[in-house]
Queue: 4 jobs
Job 1
Amino acid sequence: MTMTQKAIKIATTKIIGSSQRGTRGVDTTTTARSSSLMRGAIKGQQRWYDQRSSSSRKSSVSFKTRSASRRSPVVHATADDGYKVAVLGAAGGIGQSLSLLLKMNPMISDLALYDVGAIVKGVAVDLSHCNTASTVNGYCGNEELGQALKGCDLVIIPAGVPRKPGMTRDDLFSINAGIVRDLTQGVADHCPNAVVAIISNPVNSTVPIACEVMKKSGTFDKRKILGVTTLDIVRSDEFVSTLKGLDVNDVDVPVIGGHAGITILPLLSQTFPQTSFSKKETEDLTVRIQNAGTEVVEAKAGGGSATLSMAYAAARMGEAILRGLSGESDVYECSYVSSDIVPDMPYFATKCKFGKDGIEEVMPIGDITAYEQEWLDKLKPELKAQIDKGIAFVADAP
Ligand code: NAI
C-alpha cells in the first residue's frame, strides 16, 4: 500500500473514531479536550489518548470510555494498513510502557518489540492480548533484529542502561554508544527509510553516532533521525501550568539545545499562552527543568531513571511522527536533529515540522531574552563537546 493510500486509510479511521465519539458519547466523567498531549504539535485534532478525567487535571490517560461506550474509538479503530513501528529495548522500563501506549495507537498496525533480554517475547505475548487493532511480535537477539526491523516506518530506540544517582548522562556513553551504533546499523541494513527516534542517553552524543553510522552506510537522510527531547517539553508544560494555575492542556513551552543538564534550555519567554514570570520564577524553573531527570533518578534511589513519563513523552513524539508521515500538516514538536540553525552546532534541538518524509523543516529559535541568551552561550561548548564525542566514536572505529 502506498503512503497516500495509508494516509487515506488513517484519515478514514480518524473520522470513524470521532463519529463514534459523537454518537456513542464518552463516559460522563471524562472530557475529550481538543488539545492536550499534542498541544503545540498538532492543533485542533481529536487524539486517541486525549481523554482526561475532568475531576483531576493531573490524571493522564483515562480508559473509562470503554466502560461507557463498550467499544472505545481506540479499540474500534482498524489499522490493518497502518504503520509498522519497532521498539528496540522493548523489555526495559521505558520500552514496556511505551509499547503499551503504542499498542493503543490506531495508526499502528504492526508493533515489533525487540530486546536482548529473552523476556521480550513474553512482553509481546502479554501485549498481544490487548484487543486493539495492531499485531504484536517479540524478537530477541541480534539474529532476529532484521525480522523486527523489516518494513518498519518508525523505529524508536530506548535500549541501553539508565542513570543511577550521581551519574551524568555522559557517564552512560561507554555502554550506550555501542548499543546505539549497532542498532542503527541494523536500521541501515533492514529499513533505511524508517524514521529513527533515539531515546538512549546521552542523546546529545547518540544522535550524532546514529547519523555517522548512516553516513558510513550511504543511507543518511537528516530528515529521518532525531533525538527524543519531548520529556523536557512535557515537564516544562507541567511545571509551568502548576506554577501559574493554567490548564496544562493549553500550555506549550519550547525547549531547545540538547538533552543533558545545562544543554537543556527552556524558552520560558516563548511560553504559550503568553505568560509572565518573575526573575526568580524564571531562574528556578529553568534550573528545575534542567535537573528534572536527576530529580527522578534520586527519587528512585538506584532503581533507574524516568520511565513512565518518558514512555508518555515518546508516545507523543511517535504519534507526531506518524501523523506527519500520513500527510497531516501543522505537526510540530521540538526535537534534537541535524541542524544549521545555530552556527557551529551540527546538532541542536528546536521546534521541527514533521511531514511525509520525517523532519520537513527545522524551525529557528526565534526571539529570546538576555537571560536565555546567557544560557545559550553557556551550553554551546558543552553540547559541542558531546556532539564531537559521538562523531569521533564512529569515525575512530576500526
Ligand atoms: P532499562 O534498563 O529499564 O531498559 C533498557 C533495555 O534495553 C533493557 O531491556 C535491555 O535488555 C535493553 N538492551 C540493552 N542492550 C540492548 C541491545 N543491544 N539491543 C536491544 N536492547 C538492549 O532502562 P530504561 O529506564 O528503559 O532506559 C533506557 C534508556 O533511556 C537509558 O539510556 C536512559 O538513560 C534513557 N532515557 C532517556 C530519556 C530521554 O529523555 N531521552 C529519559 C529517560 C531515560
Job 2
Amino acid sequence: MNTIEIINKKKYGKELSYEEIEYIVNGYVNDSIPDYQISSWLMAVYFQGLNSDETSALTDLMVKSGETIDLSFLNTTVVDKHSTGGVGDKVSLIVAPITTSLGIPFAKMSGRGLGHTGGTVDKLESIKGFHTELPLQRFKDQVKELGIALVGQSGNLVPADKKIYALRDVTGTVDSIPLIASSIMSKKIASGADAIVLDIKVGNGAFMKTEEEAKKLAETMVAIGKKLNRETVAVLTNMDQPLGTEIGNGNEVLEAVKLLRDQEYSQDLYDVSIEIAAQMVFLAGKATTEEQARKLVEEVIQSGEAYEKFVTFIEAQDGKMDSIHEIEAKQSIDVTAEQAGYIASIETQQIGEAAMLLGAGRKTKDDQIDHQVGITFHVKTGDKLQTGAKLATIHTNMEDNDTVIKKIKDAITLSENPVQVKPSVIGIVN
Ligand code: URA
C-alpha cells in the first residue's frame, strides 16, 4: 500500500477500505507516515467526508491503537455518557449518582476544560482532597464496590486519537463530522462502555451551532455505535444560553449539590439532567419505557438516594463534602441591565470566555485554573427585565474586571417584544 495513493483516492471522493484506513492510522501511530501526509489525508477527509463504513473503521482502528478498559467483570451493561461540551454543563455530576442509585455502574473517564467550555475533572478538583487520578485497579474496585467512580483520562487509551486530534488542531481539520464522531466514540468504546448516551449541545455556546449540524453528528455517532455493537442514543440539548445558573468550578459543584440535596434548581439544568439520566436507565434495561425511566430518575432525587450516593462517591475519592460551599473569591460584582426589555439572545461562548478570563477556565492546555472564581448567571432567554436588573454576578480575584463585565453585557441582546424560547431538550436521535 502507498500513502499517496490513499490520499489521492480520498481526494477524489472514493471509498477507502478497512485495510487502507488501517495503513494510515497504524502508520501515523508508529511514525512511519509523517505529519505532512496525514495532514493532507485529513484535509481530503474534511472536504470529501467519510461514509458510515469508513467512519466506523476509523473508530475501530483508533480503539485498537492502544489499551482498552475491560469492565466485563461487572456482569452488567455499562452505560457511559458524553457531552460535546458547553457552558455551565455540570450534568455528569448530577446523573452519575442518579444512575448509580438505580443499579447502573458509572465508570467514567472525563476530560478537562479548554477555552470557553468546562470539564468535569476540573469541577471535581474544586473539592478539597478529591483525587481525579486513581490507579486502574482502584478505579475498578471502587466501581465494583460502590457502583461509581470518575477519573481523568489517563493511560494509553486511544493514542491514535491523541496524535490525530493534536494534528487536526493545527491544520484546520477539527470541525469535520466524521472526524469528531470517530474521535469521541473511540474514547467511549476504549474506556469500556457497552452503551452510550450522548449529550449533543446545539447553539452559540457549542461546537455544533445549528440543529442541522448537531443532528448530522448525532446520526453519525449513532451509526458508529450500531456498527460496533454499542447501543447509542443522542440527545440534542440547547446551548444558546448557559446551562443552569453557575459557570465555573466550585460554584458548579454546589449547584449540582443543591439540585440533588435540596431539590433547588434551574429548570433547564433539571430537564437536561433528567433526560440524560433517563436515557441511560432505559438503555441499561432498567425501565420498559422512557417515561418509566424518567419517573425512576425523579424518584431517586426526591428520596435523597441520589444525594447519598453523591456523598459516598466524593468521600470514596477522598473529597471533603464540607469544602463544597459558596465560592470564596475576593469580590463579587453585579452586572446589571442598562435598559429594560426581554432577553432576545445570549452569546453563550462569550459568557464562557468571560468565565475563562476570570480564571475559571483555560486558554491553553497548560494554564492553571482558579476553582474559587466564576459567574452566577441570573437570567434566561425570554426573561423580562427592568433597568438595573441583575444579569450576572462575577466572583473574581482580579483587580480590573472591566473587560469581563463588558463581555457579559455585550453578550446579551434585549428586545422590546416578547421572544420565543427554545426548549432545553431539542430532540433525540436513536
Ligand atoms: N472532542 C473530541 O474528543 N474530539 C473531537 O474531535 C472534537 C471534540
Job 3
Amino acid sequence: ARVDKGGHKHFMAKEIAEQPVVLANALQAYLSDDGIVLPEPGIDFDKVERMVMVACGTAYYACVTAKYWFEQLAGIPVEVDIASEFRYREPPISKGTVALFVSQSGETADTLAALRHCTGRADSILSVVNVESSSIARESDLALPIHAGTEIGVASTKAFTCQLNVLLLLALRAAEARGKMSNSEVATLLDELRRLPGVFNAALGRDDIIRETAEDLADAHDVLFLGRGLMFPLALEGALKLKEISYIHAEAYASGELKHGPIALIDHAVPVVVMAPRDHLFEKTVSNMQEVIARGGPVVLITDAAGAAEAGDDAWRTIVMPDVDPRLTPLLYALPAQLLAYHAAVAKGTDVDQPRNLAKSVTVE
Ligand code: G6P
C-alpha cells in the first residue's frame, strides 16, 4: 500500500510519532501471557559462548546498545563490528559463536557480505530486519522481524527503536535461558516494557522544549554528544542523526573519554548534549558535564526528573524525560535524539526526508 505522511510535514516526523504504536505492535507479536515468544527454530542460548553483532549506520548503534544488554543481562561476551570492516578483516569465528546481523532494509551490501563470511563458520546466523523477504533475512537461520512498518525517511528512526526492542527481548530470553535472570525478574521487566509505548507517548509531549533547544542548536557548527553505559550508543546515534539531516558536524564520545581529547574543543560555540538518566553512572557523567560548563561550553542535559533536580540549573537547557527502568532508557532516549536532529534540520531548511548524498539502502559498496 502507498504510504503517505498522515498529516505530518515530513515522513521522518510521522515515523517518529508512530513509535508508540509500532512498538506496541511489535510487543504484541513477541509477547504472550507466558513471556517472550520467538519464531522457530529457537536458539539454545545456554550453549552460546560468544556473539558477534555486525551492521552499518544506525543499525550498528543498535548492536552497540545490544552488547551492553547481552553482556550485563545474559553474561554473553559480545563483539560488535562495522560490516565494512568485518567483511574484509575476515575475522576467525570460533565454535560456539552466534553471529547476529541488524539491517532495516535487509539488503545492505556490506552487512550481507559480513553475513556470508559467517555462513558455515558460526553456529547460527541470526538477523534482525524490517523487510522479511530481504536477502539478509533469507540467508539467516533465524530472522526476527522488527515490525516497524515501511520506513521512508532516509534517516532511520522507528526502525532503530524497533531494533532495540527485539534485541532487548532476545537478551532477556538469553538471560532467562542461562539462569542470569529469574522468570519473575524477566516478567517484571516485560511489564515495564509493555508500559513503554505509553511512556513514549508522554515523552512526545516534550516536543516543544526539544524544538526550542534544536532551534538554538541549529546555529552551531559543531556539537558534541556525551553518554556513558547504555547512553554511549545513544549519544553516537544522536550525533549521527544530527549530521545526517541538519549537516551540523556532530561527534559522540563516551563521557569518560572527554578528557582524552574532545575537551580541547570546548568553548561557548560548541554545544554539548549530555544524555544521562539518573542511573548508577549519573554522578560520573554530571562531573563530566561540570567540566564542560567550567570551560564555557553550553550544555543540553537530557535526563529525568531526579537527574534534573540533582544536576541543578547549570545546564544551558535541560530536557526532562519521563521515568523508565534504567535498562529501558535506550528505547526512550532515542526520541529526544531524533527530535533534536529533526527540528534542527527543519530550522535550517534542509531536505529532512532525503538528505543530500545519502541513500535509504546502500546495496552497492
Ligand atoms: C543507510 C541509511 C541509514 C541506515 C544504514 C544501514 O546509511 O541511510 O539510515 O542505518 O544505511 O541500513 P540498513 O538497511 O542495513 O539498516
Job 4
Amino acid sequence: GSILVLHGPNLNLLGIREPGHYGRQTLAEIDEMLQRQAAAWQLSLSSFQSNAEHALIERIHAARENTDCIIINPAAFTHTSVALRDALAGVAIPFIEVHLSNVHAREPFRRQSYFSDLALGVISGFGAHSYVLALDAARHWLQARSP
Ligand code: DQA
C-alpha cells in the first residue's frame, strides 16, 4: 500500500506554533515517526507540506496514478477550501482527515469542515498521535479492501 501524507498551511511551524493547541513536536519529527511506523507496517509513505493551496492541489493531482490512500491535515484550509475538497473528489483517492487539536472544542468556525463528509473518517484531538491513528486506520482500510 502507498500512502501520501499532506500537511496544510502553518504546519511547518509545529514545535513553536501555539504549543498549547499543537504540541511541541516539529513537523520533521512527526514525518520521521510516520516513516518509521509505515516501514514497520510495510507501507510506503511520502509526506508533503505547503502553505499554498495550489501546491497542495497539484500534489493531489500528481497522486492520481500511485496512491492508495491520503492522510490530510488541511489545517486552516479545512474551513475554507472548496478547491482542495474538489481536488480530492476529482482524483477519487480515499482519504482520512486529521487534526492535532480537537476542532470541536475550539472556536465555532473550526467545526465546519469542507472535507469530513467525503473522508473515510476524521481523527481530531490527539496531537501528533492523531497522524499515527490515521495511519493505522489507513492500514486497516487497505487490508479490508484487498486482504
Ligand atoms: C488544525 C486545526 C485547524 O483549525 C487549524 O487552522 C490548523 C491546524 C489541527 O491540526 O488541529 O492550522 O488542522
